[in-house]
């Protein structure tokens, strides 16, 4: 039985540049008690689609039907939509820190939904909030009820968001990227929690995500969207094992989980189209490696196959898209014992004094004796849950935080013993690539000035010489040098990350610290950036310290991996050794919690049942 059924949904959003055709004629059905997954790149229309259904797009022109429990949500008066939203339909948003109000306790924010939708006494509301916090796994919920959002970790804040969505026992919960940027263990806990809610409360879940591994492991049915269109639809197991549409296959091929030592990832070429214009043919045709002559001029039909998969494509042989082997690349190297060490960390400790000005102060040990050597030309990965000390250790190596014990040698010099002048010179040898390509670039400065900052700060190049060096760096990382005077807002997310990489390369550093450099990117853009990092390492003999919570990414790029827990390295091994034979229980826990998309298979045993014309 369908709890939610969408029929021909179309969403047009007026903007200063014109009308954005965000969703085009999308239909799907969500069964009662199931987990329905929606996948696709950023800008594909995933979030806009669900926001239109629950009435969060005030100025949009929405046509079609969205039948929820038999009632059409499109065109309902706002009062009725508000009654359903929260009462019968819950929402879990991507960023819990920005979704929770910093001025109010989490108990007050969850109870607000009860007071809006029900007539309930404060004492009873408080008891129900404590009960739901306990069900979503918040320890000592009675004590944490009056805490503020900043007093919770990222995973705990996401649990609070889930509690807020479930407090009124809705029949449908829409989870929009609920696990993005969370550690693999926290991701596993959140997914398990959603599954428990389905079984215990009968809740139906729509999960929106670009994490194909996560979706493949939990979704009953999947819809893959691109540029506002539904490209593929069917059972999750069938779609991810043997996709019928080239776009779905391209997303899976881009994933570093399809690991092959010495082979490059195969990203989808090009970039998503503008949604201001409607193409005459298939919207994916300009990026499709299997495009036919008619794909650019004629709209594709809907192909329905014997295994239930539906694909909007001219190809009649569903699943004929073969996994690409990838181009030859530099093989993953084991550590060269004779290579010159770039970083040597010995018994590194870092201790903070915490506590209020008038209250009792206590000691917090963040790093508890780190020993690590990184050889020239090597990539060493740092993995572990949030709070284990990964980024803190990286800051110590970069000289941004001074260790309280032990030593760190960079290019043979103890950075703790350097005077300011010598340390300024040494800073040329270590650079950082940050996680957020949006937040790490000044939006008011032009790209040429941003990339040229290292030259300016260190007095290395001036005037026309600096400009030529910047243009060369842009070319090296795959950016058009003619875009020298553009602002960061005029670039895509992947291009902005390339700007950050170009800035890091400016002074020919001996070490580049990559702190979650691809976690905010779509899987295809992620593949392009990872390929770029590998190519630059081969050409320039770079050394990387690579921090990530995505184990598939770490496995693809790293020669060795250090697993951190509680401020210590609990296991250090060659990449394949660590993945095939993890020794420490914590490493085993991390690997068990990771979600890996299934490998692409050859053509399945499926036949074409029906072809329908699409309006």
Word description of this protein:
- There is one protein chain.
- Strands 6-7-8-3-9-10-12-11-23 form a nine-stranded mixed beta sheet, with helices on both faces. Strands 18-19-20-15-21-22 form a six-stranded mixed beta sheet, with helices on both faces. It has a four-stranded antiparallel beta sheet with strand order 2-1-4-5, with helices on one face.
- Residues 319-335 have low confidence and may be disordered.
- A hairpin with a 2-residue loop joins β16 and β17.
- It is built from 20 helices and 23 strands.
- Among the domains are: 95-169, no CATH class; 341-593, Rossmann fold, CATH 3.40.50.300.
- α5 (122-135) crosses α7, α7 packs parallel to α8 and α16 runs parallel beside α17.
- By secondary structure, the chain is α/β, with parallel strands linked by helices.
Secondary-structure blueprint of this entry?
Layout: E1 2-15, E2 18-31, E3 35-39, H1 46-53, E4 61-68, E5 71-72, H2 78-87, E6 89-92, H3 96-99, H4 106-117, H5 122-135, H6 141-144, H7 154-166, E7 172-176, H8 184-201, E8 204-208, H9 212-218, E9 221-226, E10 229-235, H10 236-241, H11 246-254, E11 302-305, E12 310-312, E13 341-354, E14 362-375, E15 379-383, H12 390-397, E16 405-410, E17 413-414, H13 420-426, E18 430-433, H14 447-458, H15 463-476, H16 493-505, E19 511-515, H17 523-540, E20 544-547, H18 551-557, E21 560-565, E22 568-574, H19 575-580, H20 585-593, E23 608-612
Parallel strand pairs: 3-8, 3-9, 6-7, 7-8, 15-20, 15-21, 18-19, 19-20
Antiparallel strand pairs: 1-2, 1-4, 4-5, 9-10, 10-12, 11-12, 11-23, 13-14, 13-16, 16-17, 21-22
């Amino acid at each position: 039985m369908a709890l939610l059924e969408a029929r021909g949904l179309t969403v047009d959003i007026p903007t200063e540049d014109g009308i954005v055709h965000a969703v085009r004629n999308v239909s799907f059905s969500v069964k009662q008690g199931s987990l329905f997954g929606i996948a696709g790149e950023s800008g594909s229309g995933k979030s806009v689609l669900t926001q239109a259904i629950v009435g969060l797009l005030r100025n949009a022109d929405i046509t079609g039907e969205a039948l929820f429990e038999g009632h059409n949500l499109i065109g309902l008066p706002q009062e009725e939509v508000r009654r359903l939203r929260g009462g019968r339909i819950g929402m879990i948003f991507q960023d819990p820190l920005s979704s929770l109000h910093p001025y109010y306790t989490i108990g007050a924010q969850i109870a607000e939904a009860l007071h809006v939708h029900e007539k309930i006494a404060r004492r009873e509301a408080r008891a129900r909030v404590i009960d739901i916090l306990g069900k979503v796994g918040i320890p000592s919920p009675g004590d944490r009820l009056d805490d503020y959002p900043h007093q919770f970790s990222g995973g705990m804040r996401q649990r609070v968001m889930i509690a807020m969505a479930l407090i009124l026992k809705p029949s449908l919960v829409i989870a929009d990227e609920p696990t993005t940027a969370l550690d693999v263990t926290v991701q596993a806990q959140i997914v398990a929690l959603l599954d428990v809610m389905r079984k215990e409360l009968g809740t139906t879940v729509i999960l929106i995500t670009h994490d194909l591994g996560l979706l493949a492991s939990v979704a009953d049915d999947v819809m893959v969207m691109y540029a506002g269109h539904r490209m593929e639809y069917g059972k999750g197991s069938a779609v991810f094992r043997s996709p019928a549409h080239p776009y779905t296959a391209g997303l899976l091929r881009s994933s570093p989980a399809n690991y092959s030592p010495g082979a490059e990832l195969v990203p989808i070429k090009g970039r998503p189209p503008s949604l201001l214009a409607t193409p005459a043919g298939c919207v994916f045709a300009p990026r499709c490696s299997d495009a036919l002559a008619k794909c650019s001029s004629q709209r594709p039909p809907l192909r329905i196959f014997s295994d239930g998969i539906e694909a909007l494509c001219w190809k009649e042989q569903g699943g004929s898209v073969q996994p690409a082997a990838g181009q030859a690349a530099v093989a993953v190297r084991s550590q060269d014992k004779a290579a010159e060490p770039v970083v040597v960390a010995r018994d590194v400790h870092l201790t903070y004094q915490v506590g209020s000005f008038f209250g009792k102060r206590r000691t917090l040990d963040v790093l508890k004796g780190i020993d690590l050597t990184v050889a020239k030309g090597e990539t060493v990965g740092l993995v572990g849950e949030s709070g284990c000390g990964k980024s803190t250790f990286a800051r110590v190596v970069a000289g941004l935080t001074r260790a309280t014990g032990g030593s760190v040698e960079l290019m043979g010099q103890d950075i703790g013993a350097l005077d300011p002048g010598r340390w300024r010179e040494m800073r040329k040898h270590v650079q950082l690539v940050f996680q957020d390509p949006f937040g790490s670039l000044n939006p008011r400065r032009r790209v040429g000035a941003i990339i040229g900052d290292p030259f300016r700060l260190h007095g290395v190049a001036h005037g026309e010489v600096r400009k030529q060096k910047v243009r060369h760096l842009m070319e090296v990382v795959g950016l058009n040098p003619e875009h020298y005077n553009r602002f960061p807002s005029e670039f895509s997310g992947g291009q902005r990350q390339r700007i950050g990489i170009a800035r890091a390369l400016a002074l020919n550093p001996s070490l580049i610290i990559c702190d979650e450099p691809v976690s905010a990117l779509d899987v295809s853009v992620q593949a392009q950036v990872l390929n770029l990092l590998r190519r630059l390492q081969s050409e320039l003999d770079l050394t990387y310290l690579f921090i990530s919570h995505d184990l598939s990414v770490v496995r693809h790029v790293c020669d060795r991996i250090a697993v951190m827990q509680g401020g210590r390295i609990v296991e250090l091994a060659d990449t394949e050794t660590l993945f095939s034979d993890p020794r420490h229980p914590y490493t085993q826990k991390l690997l068990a919690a990771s979600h890996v998309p299934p490998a692409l298979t050859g053509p399945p045993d499926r036949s074409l049942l029906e072809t329908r014309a699409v309006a």
